[in-house]
Design goal:
alpha/beta, Rossmann fold, pyruvate-formate lyase- activating enzyme, globular, binds S-adenosyl-L-homocysteine, binds iron/sulfur cluster, binds FE3-S4 cluster
């Protein structure tokens, strides 16, 4: 048996891609290695979204170079591969900067991993493959689905044509593409067969999904969700990430009508000032966003709203930043991610005048996170005493304890008694911590 260690950075789509790389390698005799020290093949599945994320890769590669040198003597030097969005953005440059790297391939070429490994074994030279191939990557991924946990990701849409001025994704993932319904359904059924009960449909703009349906029509995401919810054994569905501009009426209605669709929505706005939203090329105003949320809450009053925020975008004044705080207060988030703006090579915002100093970004980030923290706490607190179904995912901290997810994606600790992983249990929430809840099973 050979061993592979895959380390994922960045978003959930990278987690999905890493899993699929593992599935591709299994028939070649690779099993998973917990640590890079035990592996014959080490893959870093990288993220290019902010400078810090990209730089992490080079420091990790420095460590792997030493590991490779130590093991060269005993003939077990590992093959080192860089995959993902840094690979796509930097290509050949990675091999120039770090000689220990053997393979470089992007998010749209990882299905060729078996051939790339072979090409490297024959030539003994670095192999770099980062063009966007014409074939459908998904057609070439492994059909066999080894046993999975209770929850899984499933990419249904990839790439982005929105070109927000701060963002590298349209360059690293390519243009927007929706997988056909039948292909997604087959994968969803295979996941359920492999033990999965909850599937999160992924896309950089998942609600722009418009894949070919079996009837020859292009299906919107709402229709795909309804279709997948009919699979026996599929207990819960989620989707992420949605763009406010693509939040259609039928998808909003699905949150009211499809019981397997969980009441959680990640709907980033990024900033609250209309001027900044315009410079970001988001294509909507703060008021549009608030109206949209009002429609969503009308359909599903208990929905847990989540978002992403960027502070210190070029030209952001104190007043602009206060507009971000104002939109947060008005929108009421159950959870959110917030970041300091990071200029990315090749994106329009990186060239804009009036870049904001780092101290100002840090100060604004701290203020925003304090507000978001109180909102998260308030959302969790409102769950106290409520009854809800929990899907048990894994053992907890103590013997007999298990952790599961609430419909709102909170982690919930429960004394599970005779219940096991994959069971859905009805609980009452007893206590609320900053990052998790605890509950007891209803008699
Ligand atoms: N497709 C999603 C987001 C993908 S990137 C969307 O449209 O919202 C995830 C998050 O990273 C973004 O929502 C944004 O908040 C953040 N991000 C993207 N580029 C960034 C940059 N240059 N600096 C800081 N944060 C950034
Ligand atoms: Fe990036 Fe904007 Fe596309 Fe999201 S919608 S992936 S932030 S360009
Ligand atoms: Fe990062 Fe690429 Fe995802 S840049 S956030 S891994 S799409």
């Amino acid at each position: 048996m050979k061993k592979v260690h895959i380390k994922s950075y960045g978003c959930q789509m990278n987690v999905y891609d890493s899993q699929r790389m593992g599935d591709l390698l299994a028939p070649l005799g690779y099993e998973a290695a917990g640590e890079p020290e035990d592996a014959d093949l080490i893959i870093l599945n990288t993220c290019h979204i902010r400078e810090k994320a990209a730089e992490k890769v080079y420091s990790e590669l420095g460590k792997l170079r030493r590991l490779k040198e130590e093991r060269r003597g005993n003939d077990r030097a590992p093959v080192i591969a860089v995959a993902g969005c840094v690979a796509q953005a930097e290509g050949e440059e990675i091999v120039r900067r770090q000689k220990a790297v053997d393979l470089v391939f992007g998010p749209q070429t990882y299905h060729r991993l078996p051939q790339l490994l072979k090409a490297h074994a024959i030539s003994g030279k670095p192999v770099v493959e980062t063009e966007f191939p014409a074939e459908d990557k998904f057609e070439h991924l492994a059909k066999a689905m080894p046993k999975r946990g209770v929850t899984a990701f499933l990419t249904v849409q990839e790439g982005c044509d929105k070109f927000c001025t701060f963002c590298v994704v349209p360059y690293t993932r390519g243009s927007e593409f929706s997988r056909p319904v039948a292909q997604i359904e087959a994968e969803a059924r295979a996941l359920v067969e492999a033990g999965v009960r909850e599937v999160t449909l992924l896309g950089q703009n998942v609600n722009a999904y418009h894949g070919a349906g079996p009837d020859g029509e292009n299906w919107p995401l709402a229709r795909l969700i309804t279709h997948l919810s009919r699979i026996d054994g599929m207990e819960r569905l989620r989707f992420t990430t949605s763009h406010p501009r693509d939040m259609s009426d039928d998808l909003i209605a699905a949150h009211a009508e499809t019981s397997k669709l969980m009441p959680y929505l990640h709907l980033p706005i990024q900033a609250g000032s209309d001027r900044i939203l315009k410079d970001m090329n988001r294509g909507h105003s703060a008021e549009d966003y608030l109206k949209l949320i009002a429609r969503i809450r009308k359909a599903r009053p208990d929905i847990a709203l989540s978002g992403d925020f960027i502070v210190g975008f070029p030209g952001e004044s104190e007043a602009d930043f206060e507009a971000t705080l104002a939109i947060v207060r008005a929108a009421r988030y159950a959870s959110a991610f917030s970041f300091k703006y990071s200029p990315r090579p090749g994106t329009p915002a990186a060239e804009m005048a009036a870049q904001v100093p780092d101290e100002v970004k840090s100060d604004r980030l701290a203020r925003l996170q304090a507000l978001l923290g109180t909102q998260q706490q308030a959302f969790n607190q409102a769950c106290l005493g409520r009854e809800m179904p929990i899907l048990l995912e894994k053992p907890g901290r103590h013997p007999g304890q298990m952790v599961g997810r609430s419909p709102y994606l909170q982690s919930v600790y429960i004394d599970a008694g005779t219940h096991g992983i994959g069971d859905m249990v009805n609980v009452t929430i007893d206590a609320v911590g900053s990052n998790s809840l605890s509950a007891h099973i209803q008699a």
